[in-house]
Amino acid sequence: MEDKKTPADTITFLGTGGARIMVATQILASGGMWLNLSGTEILVDPGPGCIVQSTKRKLRAHKLSAIILSHRHLDHAGDINVMVEAMTQGGFKHRGWLFTPADALENEPVIFSYLRDYLEGIELLKEGKSYTVGNLSFTTPIRHVHPVETYGFVFKTAEHTFSYIADTRYFDGLLESYSGELLIINVVFFEPKPPVDHLSVPDAKRLITELKPKVTILTHFGMSVWRARPWEVAQSLSQETGVRVISARDGMRFDLAQLDS
Ligand SMILES: [Zn+2]
Predict the structure, then answer these.
(1) In which residue ranges of the chain is pLDDT below 50?
(2) Which of 61, 194, 245, 249 has the smallest number of CB atoms closer than 10 Å to its CB?
């Protein structure tokens, strides 16, 4: 047992709800994920309520090194402006990076133009690129099939690799693009709803079976998954796949050290 003073690597779920009805009702919160990895803090997909959910948990936006947006939909980007302002201490500190698909900045931008100068910089996400923030790197392996420009991420810390599969329709390219000890999957639907570009529980099962992570965390639940009880869905998937599958809870903090045991 080493007594290393390295900070813990954690992922805090500031919300586990996805899609319109969940956002409107806040049965489940919709604040995104706060990563604290190798001492670098990053906010992913600050949906509606992110500022409330993060401050309530004493997560400090002025410590963020970056905000990463998977895509411009409201349930992912609703609080992006307030979080950019918070990260830059109201614009008084010129700091922090924003990583975003280009279409979030173009016509009908979801990020106000007057906030952009507060940032240290903006990097556009593109398919197949790598990015570095502090002690962390991540890639955007493939553009998702979703109505707007959307990317998921493979994050690499000194010790761990994990993937966040953001909103998308299922397609086989996902299997070639994502890997790691941990998969975080946005599962909006219980059953597939073919015309709508979201993952369902059977899609998640396919991803878990093929990609064989040590642990999978399901999140971003729509009403149909909520009615099926996400924790029961996770338990069934664990039994069917032999992989430990967890349903995220609002406020849950996952310590990546769990991947080592
Ligand atoms: Zn979406």
Answers:
(1) 1-3
(2) 194
